[in-house]
Predict the 3D structure of the following.
Amino acid sequence: MSEPIPTVRRCVCPGSYDPVTNGHLDVIARAAALFDEVVVAVLHNPAKQGSFPVEERLQMIKQSLAAELVGRIRVDAMAGGLLVDYCRQVGAAWVVKGLRAGTDFAYELPMARMNKHLSGLETVFLPGEPTLEHVSSSLVKEVAAHGGDVRGLVPDVVLERLLALRTG
Ligand code: PNS
């Protein structure tokens, strides 16, 4: 059965954010324009280290948020479990995701339908900003690891960390 819709319109922007990109930040800012509050949930899989520790991913997001949005955006770690349970815990009835291309849609649609099936949780898809269509955490890491220039694709704080990863 569907959950009652809370008075504060709160959404969750979930993801690995390993690391956050300008594509993610665009979606988070647009979610903040649509909802009263946004919870950026960083999936933390204890069995999988990722490229950046979860605390560092949280820090990079916090440091990259536009000052005017800080009061309405919470950045939190989601330590395993189902997204529907996390959303229930934080009182969010919506998930917001960015969609870059057809492949994103094919990946996201079953998850959106499953979340709707499990608890009535709705997913709002925002079309990705065309100039950031080619930007993903994995591609940015790969390019940066080989010395490629990813300026303008990630926030400055991430640029510094990617450089530090490369130079050790
Ligand atoms: O940035 P990503 O890796 O594409 O994010 C994927 C994420 C974290 C949104 C997705 O894996 C997720 O929702 N995981 C939580 C576990 C869960 O609820 N799985 C079932 C989804 S229907």
User: Anything to note?
Assistant: The CA atoms of residues 13 and 40 lie 5 Å apart.
